[in-house]
Write a structure and sequence with these properties.
By secondary structure, the chain is mostly helical. It has 8 helices and no strands. α4 packs antiparallel against α5 and α6 packs parallel to α8.
Amino acid sequence: MAALISTYAGYVLISFLPPVLWLLFYLREDRKHPEPKHLLIAAFLGGIAAALLSIVAELILIGDIHKASGGILTNSFPLIFSSPFAIFLVIAVVEEYAKYAAVKTLIVGRHEFDEPIDAMIYMMTAALGFAAIENALFAVPVFGTDFVSGITLTANRFIGANLLHALSSGVVGYFLAHSFFVPHRRHFIALGVIIASMLHTFFNYFIIIRETTPHAINLLIFLLFIMAFAVFVEFERLKRDNPADGE
């Protein structure tokens, strides 16, 4: 039993490695004013909690869990969610809002949250916590049957879903950073969540249709490239405009 537990613990650690690598890469971009480690850990754990809560919300909204719940829970909106794109949109909105809610609850309002760039850093940290537990839920069962397939899935998620989560939350972080300077703050943040959700939706949709649509992979790569470019440009702009960096 101990050997089995240690084996699966190893699988979980491997699943967590790609998001942690992305996190270290992003944190390296803000070495002048590093965020407190306990808040980064809080954001990462908040992202994990957000992922678990998202699963419950998604099952209630679009999942067929009538039997699993003993008839208590059902798909309440079967007609609305009959389209695959609509389903992906619902999933994206739930996940993007959950990641934002984790940061809003745990980080925003604390005295350490004192620079606009902090919004992007904490949002992307929460996103990678979200991606880490998602990796484990997807990859650990695969590891249990075929180790090589588990490694392949983890690697694919590293350059796909994990990057997508970080970038889409980076978009929300950008809107959160600028929301303090606009009159209708909540509406501005909501706009960020909507834009991130749409990008997330197209990513998931391109993944699904890639077998039947010849150019889906090219569209997927283009989408990630545009998102990465926009996030890194705005990240660098926030660093440059940071008054604490003036020397």
